[in-house]
Amino acid sequence: NLEKPSSTVKENFIVSKIYGAYYEIYSPRLGFKRATLKGTLRLTKSDDRHPFVVGDRILAENELSEKADWVIISKEERTSFLTRQSSNSDKHILCANVDFVAIIVSLAGPETKDGFIDRSITACFHSNVTPIIIFNKKDLVTEEKLKERMGKYESLGYKVYPITCTNLESIKDLLSDLQGKTTYLVGNSGVGKSSLINLITSNSEQKTNE
User: Fold this and answer.
1) pLDDT at 7 over 90
2) Before 110, cis peptide (omega within 30)?
3) Which residues pair with 149 in a beta bridge?
4) How far is CA 150 from the centre of its chain?
5) CA 62 to CA 168: how far, in whole Å?
6) Are 181 and 100 in contact (CB under 8 A)?
7) What is the per-residue pLDDT across 72-117, written as a single tens digit (0 to 9) for each?
8) What would the mean pLDDT of 18-29 be, rounded to a whole number?
9) Contact 30, 12 (CB under 8 A)
């Protein structure tokens, strides 16, 4: 007897978004798909708040139906991950398999204090991830102020980038260094995360404020 060909296909994806019990997963070949966890994975005990995070490389399967959700069946071992720890020692993994953590700093309107930068660098150190510092809104401060803020971290050996999120030319060096890398953005509200994404991708998908 000839066996009937299986209608199940498998594909490697990266987790791109998590919302409730569902996952948005991405494959360069198939684009973005929606997925759920296989039952056995939901039952697996873990110390993490969530068994998967953005950046996880996973294997998923589907029954060749455009309407059916994909099902995540396994996860590759993480090469790196960034954690945030609260005062009660509760650890939260923010992302996985990243090359850089880009700490976005606003030089004015509002100004990001050094304390935030220092805490972010410390988190990168404990997670063994390379931090870079992006000083945004350089057009809103004097050259002297810019050199002062940048020099403090350049002298410690960190890579820093002065940019303006409305000027594509100002992010030329940043884009060159990020090419082919996976980068996680961190920053307070209003520092320019969405504006930077819009500038890099040449669109206005991310909502921004003036």
Assistant:
1) no
2) yes
3) none
4) 23
5) 40
6) yes
7) 999 999 999 998 876 666 778 899 999 999 999 999 999 999 999 9
8) 93
9) no
**Residues 6+ away with beta carbon under 8 Å from 150:** 135, 160, 162
Q: Which two tokens stand for residue 41?
A: 């994975």
Tally the C-alpha atoms within 13 A of residue 173's C-alpha that lie toward its C-beta: 10
- Region 47-62: what's the mean pLDDT? 85
User: Which helix (H) or strand (E) segment is 161 a member of?
Assistant: strand 159-162
Strand order in the sheet with 130-136: 159-162, 130-136, 100-106, 183-186
Question: 209 phi and psi, to 5 degrees?
Answer: -105, 160
Q: Is the pLDDT of residue 17 over 60?
A: yes
Q: How many CB atoms lie within 10 A of CB 120?
A: 22
DSSP per-residue codes, 71-131: EEEEEPPPS-EEEEE-TT--EEEEEES-SEEEEEEESSSSPPPHHHHHHHHHHHHHHT-EE
pLDDT score, position 126:
85
Q: Give the residue among 176, 170, 177 at the shortest CA–CA distance from 195.
A: 170
Q: Which residues contact 188 (CB under 8 A, 6 or more apart)?
A: 106, 110, 112, 116
Q: Are the beta carbons of 112 and 97 closer than 8 angstroms? A: no
